[in-house]
Specification:
By secondary structure, this protein is of the alpha/beta class. It contains eight helices and 14 strands. The strands form three sheets. Strands 1, 2, 5, 6, 10, 11 and 12 form a seven-stranded parallel β-sheet that branches. The relative contact order is 0.17.
């Protein structure tokens, strides 16, 4: 069991876009009130193709200010939608219950995925944002993402189930604690789950919390988010992704630095070091 001094909290704010600016202000106010300065912002460069960051300089300045004060920036897709693509029946089954229409990177051909990531990096650079990693919308992606991210120095990514440093191969199994606002019964259920997990995972070294903009608009969820964070902070310290994974982030790595030397796997408690074969990209 982890000691109180080693217990950590990882907070990520998803869907950071000027389209959600008012909701995000509520989340930022909560983080500021709880004095959480280490957290991640999952920023969408052009939400649904209608909210390009370049047209909202005041919003970008706010994100940049938070970046300077300790927040880590992640590229979170390009558009965060599936416009222009129609799922097959098999694809519908694969994402059933996981997302409505946000699996932007789940079924994209690899070249299109590369192009979207490159475009997102360009838009970030224009706004002075420095991403430490990439997280696909809805935590869903197709094969080969690790190779694309390694090529671009975006070494940190995650799924619902855990974290991954794509350069070193380090993986950490930590399911995200998140809420649903799609139906009232789901909001009530996820609030109960959050309360239970707060106690079930007391012995875990790291707890991940994922907050989405709609969470602040549903009273039962908003109360649960605040109560959960307060409870976790009583015996945990909020930290960043790079601190957890021991990575240095984009802009401080070169292609191939830290690349896995051989295929293999070593179990280290909650940490799993997995060395993918060279062909995995």
């Amino acid at each position: 069991m982890a000691t109180a001094s080693s217990r950590r909290l990882l907070v990520a704010v998803h869907d950071v876009t000027p389209a959600h600016e008012e909701r995000l202000q509520g989340i930022f106010a909560l983080l500021d009130r709880l004095e959480i300065t280490r957290y991640a912002l999952f920023v969408v460069p052009n939400w649904h193709g209608e909210w390009p960051l370049g047209e909202h300089p005041r919003f970008v300045e706010e994100v940049r200010r938070r970046q300077a004060n300790g927040a880590e920036i992640f590229l979170h897709g390009l558009r965060h939608d599936e416009v222009g693509r129609e799922r097959s029946v098999w694809q519908q089954l694969r994402v059933a219950g996981r997302t409505g229409s946000s699996a932007e990177f789940m079924f994209l051909p690899s070249e299109q995925a590369r192009a979207r990531i490159d475009r997102g990096i360009e838009l970030f650079a224009a706004g002075g944002l420095e991403p430490v990693g990439f997280v696909p919308p809805a935590w869903l992606h197709g094969p080969g993402l690790d190779g694309v991210l390694r090529e671009r120095g975006l070494r940190v990514t995650e799924s619902f189930w855990g974290l991954w440093d794509v350069l070193s191969g380090t993986r950490m199994r930590n399911p995200a604690l998140s809420w649903s606002t799609q139906r009232q019964w789901r909001s009530d259920a996820t609030a109960l789950i959050a309360e239970a997990r707060k106690w079930i995972e007391r012995g875990r070294e790291l707890v991940r919390v994922a907050i989405h903009p709609p969470d602040v608009e549903v009273p039962v969820v908003a109360r649960s988010v605040e109560r959960t964070l307060k409870g976790l902070l009583e015996e945990r310290t909020a930290v960043g992704y790079r601190e957890v994974l021991g990575s240095s982030g984009r802009g401080k790595t070169k292609l191939g630095v830290g690349a896995p030397p051989a295929e293999g796997r070593v179990e280290l408690g909650d940490v799993e070091e997995r060395q993918p074969p060279a062909s995995s990209s």
